[in-house]
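Researcher: Sit down with what I've pasted below and flag anything odd:
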Amino acid sequence: MGAIPLSEIGKAIVYDAPSHSTHVAQIKKASYMKGEYPEHLKAYAANKTGLNRCPVECKGKTGLAYSACLRKCAERLGIKKRK
């Protein structure tokens, strides 16, 4: 069983163990803290691509209309879904 050093206790995550496990809970260390971006992914962050504007533009819409609005907004920004 692994251990988390006390210096990294702030990164500890406790979650329910899978059904096949004999343990009640499991602990793991978060790869990145909430709000942090790894260096290799910073270019894809929503604030860099402009995607953080799309939910604001689509506010008030629900369901399929909201989904379609998000897709159109992303397309306007030059972001297309990979096939």
Q: What stands out?
A: The first strand starts at residue 12 and ends at 16.
